[in-house]
Each structure stands twice: as C-alpha cells, then as structure tokens.
Design goal:
By secondary structure, the chain is of the alpha/beta class. The chain is built from nine helices and eleven strands. Helix 3 (41-50) runs parallel beside helix 4 (67-77). 27% of the residues are buried.
C-alpha cells in the first residue's frame, strides 16, 4: 500500500551533507515517483518554487536558510504540503517551533532504516487520509468529496464525468491523453451519445470555467494534457 500511494507523489530532500543526501535519496527514491535534491535552504526554496513537490524532507541545519525557515516559507503558500524536519536536536525549543509550523514529523538523527520506514508509512497514511492532491498554488482536488478547493473560496463540486476526467488527467499528469482514451474512461458505461468528441470538449470547457487556474491544455490532433 505504501509504495502504491507514494509512487504518485514527488519528494524534495534538502541536506547539506553530501553523503547523507546520497544515502537518503537512494532509500526514498524507491518509493517516490520523483526525488529532487537541494544542498542548502536557498536551493531548497528554488527547487520547490520551480517543481511540483508533494513532500519535503529538510535538514534543520543548512547554509543560507535553515530548515525551519524553509518550512515556514513553504507553509505560507502551501498548507497541504507534507514537511518533515531532520535534526540532531530534541530539545523543547526546537520541537515547539516545529509544532507551530505544522510539520508531518520531526525526526531526530540519525535517520536509520526503522525511522525511515515509519516515516514512509506516516506519509502514505497522511495522503490516504486527506486523499487530495495539490495541482498548483491556486487549486487542490479532493478525491473523496469530488471537489476543487480554491484559495479563499468555497469548494466547487464536480459532476461524475468532470471528476472522472480530472482524475484520469491527474493519473497521467504531464502526459497527453488522447480523445479516444478519455472517451473510454469517461463514457465507458454510456453508449447513448452520438458525438463523444464534442462531449469531451464541453467537459473540458466546464472544468476550466469552474477554475480557470486548471492547467489543462489542448494538443491539436493529439488530445489533452494537465501540466503540473
């Protein structure tokens, strides 16, 4: 279950010790779809802003910007991102600061196999519990409630077919989905329509009307792609 859930997500590891960074990346790389690296706090924020990151693993003591400050900066704009702090400290002041940020976990070094395993399980459980995915800084999708969550607005309900389409695109994000494949997914049990291609166009249009921030793009003659 753990690997099935985490393989849908991306991880950023920020650690200034080169050997530790390689070791953690090799272990966690087996579980995540993509793993990004950063050697200091400044680089961590640059990677986070550039890439689509679902989980962040931060060493607390890094050059330029420490892990807690990086976590604070991320939390300001991305409330759903899972953040884990690695630290040699277990004193109360550090723990209290970490709690205030809303971390998934605060792990005292060294990060051995058992701690890493427990951490992976907690990450997967958190994704399963929330069952929602961050699309971009403006839009999050909740699988259980079939709603779009927009910053500062009430959740927007999706129809059955809108949800099927969006979930198919999320499962194949950054890949072109052909119209035929979309038809087979969305209208598998509906053989009553004459113009399925027109229905897909209408469905895409209504989705983008509900949130203009949904990054759905038409690739002429090929299909559609959700770029995140």
């Amino acid at each position: 279950m753990v690997i099935e859930i985490l393989k849908q997500h991306t991880l950023l590891i920020a650690e200034d010790d080169a050997d530790t960074l390689v070791e953690i990346t090799q272990y966690f790389g087996h579980y995540f779809r993509l793993v990004f690296q950063a050697k200091n706090g400044k680089q961590a924020l640059e990677v986070f802003e550039k890439e689509q990151i679902d989980v962040v693993l931060l060493d607390i003591s890094m050059p330029y910007i420490n892990g807690l400050e990086v976590a604070k900066a991320i939390r300001k704009t991305h409330p759903n991102t899972q953040i884990v702090i690695l630290s040699a400290h277990n004193e109360s002041p550090f723990l209290l600061k970490a709690i205030e940020i809303g971390l998934l976990n605060y792990v005292v070094k060294p990060l051995n196999r058992q701690k890493a395993k427990d951490l992976l399980i907690k990450m997967a459980q958190n994704f399963k519990q929330n069952h929602q995915i961050f699309i971009n800084s403006s839009v999050t999708y909740n699988y259980d409630d079939k709603v779009l969550i927009l910053q500062g607005k009430n959740p927007i309900n999706l129809s059955k077919n809108e949800a099927l389409l969006l979930e198919a695109m999320l499962a194949n994000k950054n890949q072109i989905l052909s119209v035929d494949k979309i038809i087979n997914i969305v209208y598998l049990d509906d053989k009553t329509r004459l113009d399925y291609t027109g229905c897909i166009k209408t469905l895409i249009s209504t989705l983008k009307h509900k949130s203009s921030d949904l990054p759905i793009h038409n690739k002429y003659g090929l299909g559609y792609v959700l770029k995140i």
